[in-house]
Amino acid sequence: MEPYRIKVVEPIPITTREQREEALKRVHYNLFDLRADEVTIDLLSDSGTGALSAAQLAAGMEGDESYAGSRSFYRFRDTVAELTGYPHILPAHQGRAAERILFSSLLEPGSIVLSNTHFDTTRANVELAGCQARDLPCPQARNLDSEEPFKGNIDLEALRRELAGADGPKVAAVVMTITNNGGGGQPVSMENLRQAADLCRRHGVPLLLDAARFAENAWLVTRHEAGYQDRTPRQVAEEAFRLADGCMMSAKKDGIVHIGGFIGLKDPELAEKCERLLIATEGFATYGGLAGRDLDMMAQGLLEVTEPSYLAERADIAAHLAQRVRVAGVDILEPPGLHALYLNAGRLFPHIPAHHYPGHALSCQLYLEGGIRSAELGSLYLGEEDEDGNPVKSAPYELVRLALPRRVYTRSHYDHVGRTLEGIAKKAESVGGFRIVDQSPILRHFRVKLQPV
Ligand code: F0G
């Protein structure tokens, strides 16, 4: 059960089907353009959408808003240094700001960054620094149905080949994303992390963690990895950070705050370089674009997030929804992680071709039938067509992500999601696809306009 009770509530909008039909037409079937008050259950992202605890709010009241050297910074820095073991801690307003500062300071144009899977902003920041981002997911990740527990791992053979190969000298960093969001929220094992760290050390390449969901990764390690069953998630997280040379973190996930992030580093010279850029572009080194109260709430959130009772319930609620979805007759990317479920829309709608976006069709149907907002992760996001709408490139899978905000929705909300999916699955063959009528050249899914086929 939930290890907390509800003290403050926020009404959620209840809409009619007619209103939702109107809204979908108005936004040209792009769910990013809906107003949040047209959405009943918002599963678009688990980022910055969590509920604060009473202790976090109280910590926020203690916030010291001094421009430089605030008490909040020192409390924050000590908490993060203790968790990670890194001596140099720089706050940043969110994950992508930390990425930009770290990559601009670490990478030379023409270098290569390797990862189990780069998250899309991580890839964008590598590319903006004039570098190449290469993903090396483990082969097990390709089978969506297999229940192997560590499908977020990096392919160690491929990593060895890249580091020892002709491009090896150009590799400037290896990034391990824990958990692997781009790879279905799957965790990375400590064994995989340790071996990756050994390879990096042997080749003199820094290993960095993209630690947005470090606590959820640690929880899954305690559940599934031999030798870790008796460890606490906090102990596993501490060990993971210490295997790497540094980290960047979007605290909007496992910091359970609405805004915040940081960089942690062992290397003093790199930290100094990052600090100079931070001061020029984010804010002074003791606030990094955040308010003092944000730093205090983040520090408190980072302590709460590794509580076993909190993580156990988060895993349980995800498993509860996963079971509802399976019973409804919809396949998911197995096994379910903690931060999201990925629905296999390609399999649910085999009659909709990739260039008519089965994932988007499912997202729109979830909104129309249940007021639920989700995110397409398929050919609308990753595909490409020519000017006449004929397919040029399609995504490997047509998925829809249901991201689960932290401490926000109850089992009855998720039961509504399950029931809605059940209704959709029953008349799956009657659901149609979409065609694009207007799109932007990059990150098209945010601004695209569509029409039912
Ligand atoms: N790294 C990972 C693994 C992420 O999932 C995200 C954000 C970021 C970095 C960037 O952090 O948003 O604070 O700038 N993921 C969100 C999501 C947006 O919905 O998955 P940010």
TrEMBL record:
Domain Aromatic amino acid beta-eliminating lyase/threonine aldolase: 42-417
Family the UniProt entry places it in: Belongs to the beta-eliminating lyase family.
Xref: InterPro entries: ArAA_b-elim_lyase/Thr_aldolase, Beta-eliminating_lyase, PyrdxlP-dep_Trfase, PyrdxlP-dep_Trfase_major, PyrdxlP-dep_Trfase_small
Cofactor(s) this protein cannot do without: pyridoxal 5'-phosphate
Keywords: Lyase, Pyridoxal phosphate
Pfam families assigned: Beta_elim_lyase
Name used for this protein in its record: Tryptophanase
